[in-house]
From TrEMBL:
Residue ranges occupied by any ERV/ALR sulfhydryl oxidase domain in the UniProt entry: 424-526
Every Thioredoxin domain range: 33-168
Protein name from the UniProt record: Sulfhydryl oxidase
GO molecular function list: flavin-dependent sulfhydryl oxidase activity; protein disulfide isomerase activity
Gene3D superfamilies membership: ERV/ALR sulfhydryl oxidase domain, Glutaredoxin, QSOX sulfhydryl oxidase domain
Catalytic activity: 2 R'C(R)SH + O2 = R'C(R)S-S(R)CR' + H2O2
Gene from which this protein is expressed: Dgri\GH20280
Organism of this sequence: Drosophila grimshawi (Hawaiian fruit fly)
Length: 643
């Protein structure tokens, strides 16, 4: 017994070593990486961090920060993976910086709807496109029909003006001493009575002529919330302005003091920023100062990249660079996970066209599901659940059923991070990359399935998904436009569908080449590169640069795509939970592993060792009557035999 135990242990060690050599990243370190990346609140994943002035919202602080406050909130609902949100983030950071002095009356905040934990909030606020900006006023409470005022612009100057306009129509007086006085100066007001209700610290009144439909004075008042010595008042009428020596044709403002003296100032231009600057310097000249600004959200010390994370990410990336045409199991799984657990779950209501689209998508996913046994069961059950509904289904019901299935079936996903879609920085690549990968994979599986009759099954599922669920709104719009232009519904065969998707993806690659969302380590190329597939490109002397499709050998492209998406060649690099894998794939992989590991050893010796180990393990299993191994379910997947 003892000797057998020792032999078994030795075998396990040998097998473990083989595994870790061939997997590239030692498995124990991989586990650490997985743990780090699956932390529910990964500060590195959102678009905002401790260095900017955007108030970071999440499920834990949302209500206490924005509901029933005595000030308003500007909230951005975004998805980290949405390219447009990424491009907008620096603009929003600047706006938050600029509007920092407004914080006693309105704060600038953001919530990441791509974080699964925030599904419920994004559902409540019926976020239909990303990014969405909403203003939630003081005492705000969401109801079924009221979830804030949507601001339909992303221009920072317009946003500033809209916010000032919203602030100016709120009824806020007693609750918030900082609220600006929005009442215009009237004809009956005089230099004497304007100070009547003011506190003694307020030694100056700034009078600003505000042209029709402008928010100049309110904005200026907001910029000066921190200056206790001054109250800003708006004047809407040119004759009243003249009474205070303001020429409404010039951009002028008046500073009035308690003795009735008027000082006229001419700001640099007609913006509230220039007006506030002019008033501030006048006040400083009178030896007045602002109160110190309080910190809005205690500056969280940004957890610097978890120790070792960078190194492991770069190990993954160099592995991916070494094997340019591998498709990774990890990415397929991550795509499915995000689709189900985030994108669909955070919908408020799924009815009509979106419901049909979801049913179609789940049908295709069930048919060509790359997940392991549990994952295949889950998707089948989920599809059965969703097709019962013919009117509507709420995202919450979907999420509950999904969670129920996950807790019933156990481990579904074998990884919690991307591999082929890992970006060189945390905000690059990821989900959108894996979504392309998944749909290419599905289109190739469909092409290899003789039973599938409908050449459009995958394209239709993808189109419906992208149109109704994909949380990258500008991607979705572009894609729908492209689908119509490229006549997606005229695709006549399954092979053509594979090529349609390939060509559409290349069009997107071309448009995004050089974009801010491009990962410098993964430049946008016309795929596949000449290095990956020389025969895919025809060397034509006169092919112009922009006639992309002229110089492709489509037959070669098609077989290339079919090859790389062949389930047998899907790489399991970085997938530690072997038992979840498709058994046939695991076997295939073991074969490949053995051949690669033993290539520089005596192959026969190696095979013998391996066989011996397996023999010993079987023996050990018998002897110790091991329980709890996975059930072998015969799985006659006819796709797997094909190339
Ligand atoms: C439907 C859709 C529409 C999108 N529209 C936009 C948009 O309008 N604006 C925007 O900013 N972002 C858009 N994106 C995101 C963008 O396309 C990329 O996903 C993102 O920039 C990440 O790029 P990536 O370098 O990881 O490679 P991706 O372009 O995501 O590609 C993923 C992987 O697929 C392989 N691949 C590349 N090209 C092809 C091809 N032609 N055929 C087969 N395989 C290929 C490569 O191995 C690549 O690494 C869209 C994404 C999707 C899914
Ligand atoms: C937050 O507020 C909403 C709406 O009032 C409520 O439904 C929800 O339960 C609250 N969440 C928490 C965590 O208090
Ligand atoms: C402000 O209060 C008045 C009366 O109290 C009410 O008619 C008006 O609708 C309120 N305005 C807002 C924006 O709540
Ligand atoms: C102000 O807005 C109103 C309503 O939108 C519009 O009718 C009016 O012409 C605007 N005035 C100016 C000076 O732009
Ligand atoms: C207006 O003046 C301010 C302050 O001098 C300056 O920062 C801003 O760029 C100017 N804006 C325009 C539109 O000229
Ligand atoms: C060059 O391009 C033109 C038009 O695109 C085509 O008609 C011609 O046959 C091409 N010539 C060669 C040598 O491929």
């Amino acid at each position: 017994m003892n000797r057998q135990g020792a032999q078994l242990a030795l075998c396990l060690v040998v097998i473990y070593l083989l595994e870790s050599i061939s997997a590239g990243v030692p498995l124990n370190r991989y586990e650490t990486l997985l743990k780090q990346q699956s932390e529910p609140q990964d500060e590195l994943l959102g678009l905002y961090d401790g260095k900017d002035k955007v108030v970071k919202l999440n499920v834990n602080n949302f209500n206490e920060t924005v509901l029933e406050q005595n000030r308003g909130s500007l909230v951005e609902f975004y998805n980290t993976y949405c390219g447009h949100c990424r491009r907008f983030a620096p603009v929003y950071k600047k706006l938050a910086e600029q509007l920092h002095p407004w914080q006693d009356v309105v704060i600038v905040s953001a919530i990441d709807c791509a974080a699964e934990e925030n599904n419920g909030i994004c559902r409540t606020y019926e976020v239909m496109s990303y990014p969405t900006l909403r203003y939630l006023g003081p005492s705000f409470q969401p109801t079924a029909t009221q979830y804030g005022v949507k601001l339909e612009t992303q221009n920072p100057d317009e946003l500033r003006s809209l916010l000032a306009g919203l602030v100016s129509v709120e009824n806020q007086t007693a609750n918030n001493i900082h609220w600006p006085n929005v009442a215009p100066v009237t004809e009956s007001d005089s230099a004497g009575n304007l100070f009547e209700d003011l506190q003694s610290v307020q030694e100056q009144i700034a009078l600003i002529f505000e042209p029709e439909n402008s928010t100049l004075a309110i904005e200026t008042a907001m910029f000066l919330l921190n200056w206790p010595a001054v109250e800003v008042r708006r004047i809407n009428d040119a004759t009243i302005a003249a009474k205070f020596k303001i020429d409404s044709k010039q951009h002028q403002l008046a500073l009035l003091d308690r003795r009735g003296a008027i000082q006229i100032h001419t700001p640099a231009n007609q913006t509230s920023i220039a007006y506030a600057q002019a008033i501030e310097s006048a006040l400083r000249a009178l030896n007045m100062t602002p109160r110190p600004q309080k910190q809005l959200q205690q500056q969280q010390q940004l957890p610097s990249a978890p120790i070792g994370r960078n190194r492991e990410v770069s190990e993954i990336i160099s592995e991916v660079h070494r094997n340019k045409h591998l498709i990774y199991q990890a990415d397929l799984e991550q795509a499915i996970r995000t689709i189900l657990h985030n994108e669909v779950s955070k919908q408020n209501e799924i009815g009509g066209e979106p419901l049909v689209a979801l049913q179609r998508f789940l049908t295709v996913l069930e048919r060509y599901n790359p997940l392991g046994t549990n994952g295949r069961q889950m998707v089948s059950k989920l599809r059965e659940f969703v097709v019962q509904f013919n009117q509507k289904l709420s995202g919450q019901q979907f999420e509950q059923e999904l969670r129920r299935l996950v807790s019933k079936l156990g481990q579904i996903y074998s990884t919690t991070n991307y591999v082929g879609c890992t970006g060189s920085s945390p905000h690059l690549r990821g989900f959108t990359c894996s979504l392309w990968t998944l749909f290419h994979y599905l289109s190739v599986q469909s092409a290899g399935n003789e039973e599938a009759q409908d050449p459009l099954e995958v394209l239709q599922a993808m189109h419906g998904y992208v149109r109704n669920f994909f949380g990258c709104t500008d991607c979705s719009n572009h894609f729908q436009e492209m689908a119509a232009r490229r006549k997606i519904w005229s695709v006549a065969s399954k092979d053509e569908a594979v090529l349609w998707l390939w060509a559409a993806h290349n069009e997107v690659n071309q448009r995004l080449a050089g974009d801010a969302t491009e990962d410098p380590q993964f430049p946008k190329i016309q795929f596949p590169s000449a290095n990956s597939c020389a025969q895919c490109r025809r060397a034509t002397a006169n092919a112009s640069k922009d006639s992309l499709e002229l110089n492709w050998n489509k037959d070669a492209v098609l077989s290339f795509l079919k090859n790389i998406h062949n389930p047998q060649f899907i790489s399991r690099y970085g997938v530690p939970r072997e038992q979840l894998q498709h058994e046939a794939l695991v076997k295939e992989r073991q074969k490949r592993q053995i051949s690669s590991v033993f290539s520089d050893m005596d192959v026969r010796m190696g095979m013998f060792l391996y066989a011996f180990c397996i023999f010993m393990m079987v023996l050990a299993f018998k002897l110790f009557a091991f329980k709890g191994g996975y059930r072998k379910k015969p799985y006659g997947h006819d796709l797997l035999g094909k190339v």
